[in-house]
Structures are given as structure tokens and as C-alpha cells.
């Protein structure tokens, strides 16, 4: 099959940038997780076949594809071990930030996954392996969003 343009006027072009907007829904498990954050709780769930705890939780185990029932959901501590961190120098629109944000990968207590979020400590106080805890926004400001967590801070 051959494709040929016979009328050049039918060809359209656009110079510049095309804005792309998308709507991401949290889904059933994500909504339950976010509502837990609104209450100041971390909810995880457990695949008994794989002996694996997911945070954020999943409806199905990503290893064996077993559906994870409601009774295998559990609240876990809001603490974890910092396993890695990096500096973010641009915002979500690609604009340079005046002050970089420090983002950490945290192995949350009693889970088998890492959780990515902002670190609130000064860079000179951050060490791989340190115990950190989630700092939640005041209850009246929580909306059921990942931003209900202000960030993670070293446990003294």
C-alpha cells in the first residue's frame, strides 16, 4: 500500500510547542492509599503467595498477578531508611528552580518497596542509611493527595 499526498494544501504543520495535558486517576487502590494519607496513615498490602508488601498498594500482585484481597491491607509505620537521594534542579514545567529540591528513595518500614518523596533536611545532614519519618501537612490542609506528605525528615 502506498500513501501519496496529491494536494500540498492538505499538509498542515505547527511551529512551536504543543501543550499536552493529561488527567491521571489514582484508581481503586490508589484512592484508598491517598485517603489513608489524608488520615495521616500509610496503607500497604500484602501478597501472601509472593510474601511481598506493596507501598503504594496494588489491586494485583505484579509478580504472580494474584488479586490482593481487602483483608491483606495493613497500616505500616510512617518511617523508613533512606537508600538513595538526588537533587532536582527543574520544576515539572522544565523551569530552573532557584533552590534545588532534594528527593529521596525510602525503604519504608515493614514493606518491600521504596517510596520516593522530598527530603526536608539540609544536604549536610543527609546520609544514606539514616532513619527518616514522614511529616504530614496539618490535618485541615490535607486533601487526599501525595502532597499531604510535606516530606521526610531525619529521626533524631
From TrEMBL:
Residues 73-136 form the ChsH2 C-terminal OB-fold domain. Pfam families: OB_ChsH2_C (PF01796), zf-ChsH2 (PF12172). This is Zn-ribbon domain-containing OB-fold protein. Residues 36-66 form the ChsH2 rubredoxin-like zinc ribbon domain. It comes from the Bacteria.
Amino acid at each position: 500500500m502506498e500513501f501519496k499526498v496529491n494536494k500540498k494544501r492538505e499538509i498542515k504543520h505547527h511551529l512551536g510547542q504543543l501543550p499536552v495535558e493529561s488527567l491521571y486517576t489514582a484508581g481503586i487502590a490508589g484512592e484508598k492509599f491517598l485517603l489513608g494519607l489524608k488520615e495521616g496513615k500509610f496503607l500497604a498490602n500484602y501478597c501472601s503467595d509472593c510474601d511481598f508488601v506493596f507501598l503504594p498498594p496494588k489491586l494485583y500482585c505484579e509478580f504472580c498477578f494474584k488479586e490482593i484481597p481487602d483483608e491483606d491491607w495493613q497500616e505500616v509505620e510512617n518511617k523508613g531508611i533512606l537508600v538513595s537521594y538526588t537533587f532536582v534542579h527543574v520544576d515539572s514545567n522544565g523551569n530552573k528552580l532557584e533552590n534545588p529540591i532534594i528527593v529521596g528513595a525510602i525503604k519504608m518500614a515493614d514493606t518491600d518497596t521504596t517510596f520516593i518523596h522530598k527530603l526536608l533536611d539540609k544536604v549536610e545532614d543527609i546520609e544514606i542509611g539514616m532513619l527518616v519519618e514522614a511529616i504530614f501537612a496539618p490535618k485541615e490542609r490535607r486533601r487526599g493527595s501525595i502532597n499531604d506528605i510535606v516530606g521526610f525528615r531525619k529521626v533524631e
